[in-house]
Every structure is written in structure tokens, then in C-alpha cells.
Recover the amino acids of this structure.
């Protein structure tokens, strides 16, 4: 991944970077903890498909962050569901 431009306001451009990251980073944890708490609070247990930290640390689950300068803006992960399908996991901004 690399640097991309996102138009925030007409006449101004914000630069952000999407990259592989660790879900164990302090700022990432502070975003993921309320994400998982929300999923568990508002969904029946059988419908909570958000990955916990162990799931996000699995070798086959690439985890990404989007940052502007060094400020975390959002996160997400990919999980192979079967040979032809990926699932978007733990997306939060």
C-alpha cells in the first residue's frame, strides 16, 4: 500500500497512508476495544462476527490501518472464508 489523497474540503487535500499494521498497537487497541464491546452489546452471541485480538493476530488475517501523518483514522482486516471469498473484518473508523 502507499500514500493516497483524500479530498477533505474543496481546495484542500488530506494525505493518508494505508499499511499493514499490528492490532496490538496502543492506539489500535483503543479503537478496537469499543468496537468489540459494541458488537457484543448489540448483537446476539451467535451473530457477533467481529474478530477478537487472537483472531486478528492469526497468521492468515492481514490487518491494516489508515493514518494521516501518525494519527490513526481507521482499521480493518481480511479473513479468507473459502477459496474464492474474503471477509472484511473489524472495520472501524
Amino acid at each position: 500500500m502507499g500514500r493516497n489523497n483524500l479530498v477533505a474540503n474543496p481546495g484542500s487535500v488530506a494525505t493518508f497512508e494505508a499499511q499493514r499494521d499490528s492490532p496490538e498497537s496502543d492506539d489500535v487497541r483503543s479503537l478496537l476495544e469499543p468496537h468489540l464491546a459494541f458488537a457484543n452489546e448489540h448483537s446476539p452471541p451467535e451473530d457477533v462476527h467481529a474478530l477478537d485480538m487472537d483472531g486478528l493476530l492469526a497468521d492468515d488475517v492481514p490487518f491494516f490501518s489508515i493514518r494521516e501523518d501518525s494519527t490513526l483514522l481507521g482499521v480493518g482486516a481480511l479473513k479468507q472464508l473459502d477459496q474464492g471469498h474474503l471477509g472484511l473484518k473489524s472495520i472501524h473508523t
About this structure: Strands lie at 3-9, 12-20, 63-68, 71-82, 85-92.
